[in-house]
TrEMBL record:
It comes from Arachnia propionica. GO terms for biological process: NADPH regeneration. Its EC number is 1.1.1.18. This is Inositol 2-dehydrogenase. One of its GO terms (cellular component) is cytoplasm. Belongs to the Gfo/Idh/MocA family. Residues 130-247 form the GFO/IDH/MocA-like oxidoreductase domain. InterPro entries: Gfo/Idh/MocA-like_OxRdtase_N, GFO_IDH_MocA-like_dom, Myo_inos_IolG, NAD(P)-bd_dom_sf.
Amino acid sequence: MLRIAVIGAGRIGKVHAATVAAHPQAQLVLVCDPVLEAAQGLAEPHGARTSADPYEAFTSDDVDAVVIGSPTPLHREHVLAAARAGKAVLVEKPVAASVEEARALADELATFDHPPVMVGFQRRYDPSIAKAQRLGAEGRIGRIEQLSIISRDPAPPSVEYLAVSGGVFKDMVIHDFDEARFFLGEITHVTAIGQKLDPALAGVDDFDGAVTMLQAASGAVAVIKNTRHCATGYDQRVELFGSDGEVMVENLRGTSVRVNDANGSDQEEVYLDFFLTRYADAYRDELTAFIDAINNGTPVSPTVDDGVAALVLAEAAERSARTGTTVEVGR
């Protein structure tokens, strides 16, 4: 039984705490958050203790691994502290606040032996996305030529959150950048158009939507469509197009029931409401892979290097959107 501490009792901390508590190979032993009441709300139902100090997770003898869901500016510090204390790490995206910090983190981790450090791009573990990627990699649809990713949130987070999020490309689109690399490999060029169309977010110095085009070293092209608001719900779709066919990942719903009546044909239930439910299986399988890496020595994926690469794309997209130019990507 792997004894796990969760740092951060916010939205993503709640996801990880619930996933750890429900996993048959894991035990939630500690939740850390400076807002102690929030930590207690996550910990007490599972018999875990709480602390306002994240460093208790690194120094406690009864903690084997740490899930880091603290604010992005603290990720590098917390990853290093955990790794130096001999704790395995699963850190939420982005791996650091900037490419410079992420590269420095990778360089520092390379200087000493440490347990596995894994980055939380959970979509790689979504059963549908993982199968689509596997079919493409196996050559089922021939030469991969195009990838389309649609990722639209049902509603934006709070203005307070957006102010410290790092921007839409680092906070939201970064999942799609990692997903694109998962399907296509290394990316060489980025072109992005940012949108500011939501009046409720007019005062935020950030885009509320974006369309991004990526060119891969293979010659394949990805188009990513994002927005912070979507009237139809949490819209998550993928199309992988190849020379011999295509693979599609559709939105998931509560059931597959369709209704035909006087109001319309093929009426279906709404999409699963947000990442908490849409990617519940992905978070579970991600945690299983993390546990396997610790117990069996299997390679972690995504790695810190994957986290660096996704941040490179995020910063390139931000630069492209603000300058109206295509950005050539360098590591």
